[in-house]
TrEMBL record, chain A:
Lineage: Bacteria, Pseudomonadati, Bacteroidota, Flavobacteriia, Flavobacteriales
Keyword terms, alphabetized: ATP-binding, Membrane, Nucleotide-binding, Transmembrane, Transmembrane helix, Transport
ATP-binding keyword on record: yes
Positions of the ABC transporter domain: 7-236
Name of this protein: ABC-2 type transport system ATP-binding protein
GO cellular component, as recorded: membrane
From TrEMBL, chain B:
Protein name per Swiss-Prot or TrEMBL: ABC-type multidrug transport system ATPase subunit
This protein's record includes keyword Chaperone: no
ATP-binding found in the keyword field: yes
Keywords tagged on the record: ATP-binding, Nucleotide-binding
GO molecular function, one term: ATP binding
Gene3D superfamilies linked to this entry: P-loop containing nucleotide triphosphate hydrolases (3.40.50.300)
Domain ABC transporter, chain residue ranges per copy: 3-230
Cross-referenced PANTHER family: ABC TRANSPORTER G FAMILY MEMBER 20 ISOFORM X1 (PTHR43038:SF3), ATP-BINDING CASSETTE, SUB-FAMILY H, MEMBER 1 (PTHR43038)
SUPFAM superfamilies: P-loop containing nucleoside triphosphate hydrolases
């Protein structure tokens, strides 16, 4: 594995019976990169992501994530990555502090370390006043920011974000992206899916999946040049309409 | 007027979901409620579709009062809730037949209204609704909401979580329904969809921030906006935020949108400042505000 790469996938494929959900995708993601993983609903993004985070075994091909093989070292992958999705983020009936403690424990952090990280995290997010409130009572945007911070608790090499900003208000959505920039600036690789095409522009590189294949992969600037359009939305419309 | 809303308020325990909301929707209008999760959009939909009673204020839909004439309203409106609420263990055809029967009509009677949408899912008409993809569920739900030829159509976040291609197709569909004379009230958290409505209300935390045509809303943006770009976006955002004259700094696609506190913005000053922050390849260009800029300015 190239030292600078934290994800390397070669002809990664997943079949369900006769149906090829992910069709021989190949790509690399570098350390500290913000990598946008786009595609229409049903294009195979979630299936591909599940293979990369070690919870679904590929049918064929090869991939290494954070230096570990998806076939043989899936458990090591899980320890070295962070994951957050819109659907499952935190426990609504635990408080902010309890959630942090719980996930810190899951990731095997020491009590001391959890306590320290918890204090820093709560202060950085400005959650002092609600630290003892149930997460279920917080606005969606706060939950998502907290969830992202929790996914970084164990200093993972890569964090996978599955539509992290859906339905979030525009100001909070931007604060969320500033957190992403910060994490990437500190060397964490960010692998993110989104349906907001302006967010695709925030990524260093973007891949677009169509019917199980990666049909385009480049910087937003080059993709726009390649398709001769003004924005990523038009790139997406041109490609995904097939 | 197809919909009138006068001083509607609704609270759940200590949470004010809607505070003194008023607006009107004209007949045949495509009216958008634009706002994030938790803004109060669903509560408003539930009040207008007679599923919830407001604490204060009054409202009419298709000239019927939402409290007194609630039964008449139910015959005259179609409602597609944000959460898929058809019968998962009935097939496409069974669901559609069920709703047609409930409203005392048949699929054949109003087929012209749903035809264009229904033909896309007809090949799967014997498949159970629970086994459909998101896009197909959405189309079935729209067919079921239209089968009794409603005067007013309520669509609560029909495109949330839907990819840009399907979103575009859905909006094309709405435009064609509007041409058939149906009044449409639609909510969305996607600001770019606002431009596709005749008029919009920007809503956040239970309050309406502004109501107007999308064109007029961006026209009334109070300040010049600049696209700023440099070699490192993260550092650029931090530097702009630390700049003493900044009024607002928001990442916006490939640029950062910047507004200045001063009446006479000095571009050269800002370039010099950014250079002193070790940024290079600096570009500053005036740009036009979007609905999202307006929303953020009002919500600030």
């Amino acid at each position: 594995m190239n030292k600078k790469n934290v994800i390397e996938a070669q002809n990664l494929t997943k079949m369900f019976g006769d149906f090829t959900a992910v069709n021989a995708i190949s790509f690399d993601v570098k350390k500290g990169e913000i990598f946008g993983f786009l595609g229409a609903n049903g294009a195979g993004k979630t299936t591909a992501m599940k293979m990369l985070i070690g919870i679904s075994k590929p049918t064929s091909g090869a991939a290494k994530v954070a230096g570990f093989d998806v076939f043989t070292n899936a458990e090591d992958i899980k320890k070295n990555i962070g994951y957050m999705s819109q659907k499952f983020a935190l426990y609504d009936d635990l408080t902010v502090k309890e959630n942090i403690t719980f996930f810190g424990g899951i990731y095997g952090l020491s009590r001391k370390s959890i306590k320290e990280k918890s204090a820093v995290l709560i202060e950085e997010l400005g959650l002092e006043k609600v630290a003892s409130k149930l997460v279920g009572s917080l606005p969606l945007g706060w939950k998502q920011k907290l969830s992202f911070s929790v996914s970084l608790l164990h200093d993972p090499k890569i964090v996978f974000l599955d539509e992290p900003t859906g339905g979030v208000d525009p100001i909070t959505r931007r604060q969320f992206w500033e957190m992403i920039y910060k994490a990437a600036n500190q060397g964490t690789t960010v692998f993110v899916t989104t349906h907001y095409m302006d967010e695709a522009e925030y990524c260093d590189r973007v891949s677009i999946m169509v019917n199980g294949k990666i049909e385009a992969l480049d910087t937003p600037k080059k993709l726009k040049q390649q398709f001769n359009v003004a924005n990523m939305n038009d790139v997406f419309l041109k490609l995904a309409r097939g | 007027m197809s919909i009138t809303v006068s001083n509607i308020s609704k609270s759940y325990k200590s949470v004010k979901a809607l505070e003194n909301i008023s607006f009107n929707v004209k007949e045949g209008e495509l009216f958008g409620l634009i706002g994030p999760d938790g803004a109060g959009k669903t509560t408003l939909f539930r009040i207008l579709t007679t599923l919830l009673i407001a604490n204060e204020g009054s409202a009419t839909v298709a000239d019927f009062d939402v409290v007194i004439d609630y039964k008449k309203i139910r015959n005259n409106v179609g409602y597609m809730p944000g959460k898929f609420s058809l019968y998962q263990d009935l097939t496409i055809e069974e669901n559609l037949n069920f709703f047609a029967t409930i409203f005392g009509t048949t699929i054949e009677e109003n087929y012209d209204l749903i035809k264009e949408i229904y033909v896309q899912i007809e090949p799967f008409k014997n498949r159970r609704a629970g086994k459909l993809s998101g896009g197909m569920k959405q189309k079935l739900a729209l067919c079921c909401a239209l089968i009794h030829k409603p005067k007013v159509l309520f669509l609560d976040e029909p495109t949330t979580g839907v990819d840009p291609v399907s979103r575009k197709e859905f909006w094309d569909m709405l435009k064609r329904l509007q041409q058939k004379g149906i009044t449409i009230l639609v909510s969305t958290p996607y600001m770019d969809e606002a431009a596709l409505c005749d008029r919009i209300a920007l809503i956040q935390d239970g309050k309406i921030l502004q109501i107007d045509t999308p064109q007029a809303i961006v026209k009334h943006y109070p300040k010049p906006i600049f696209n700023v770009r440099a070699n490192n976006t993260y550092q650029l955002i931090n530097s702009l935020k630390a700049y003493e004259h900044n009024h607002s700094v928001y990442p916006f696609g490939e640029f950062v949108h910047y507004t200045d506190k001063r009446a006479d913005f000095e571009r050269e000053d800002l370039i010099q400042y950014l250079e002193s922050e070790n940024l290079s390849d600096i570009e500053i260009e005036k740009t036009l505000p979007t609905i999202e800029d307006t929303f953020m300015e009002l919500a600030k």
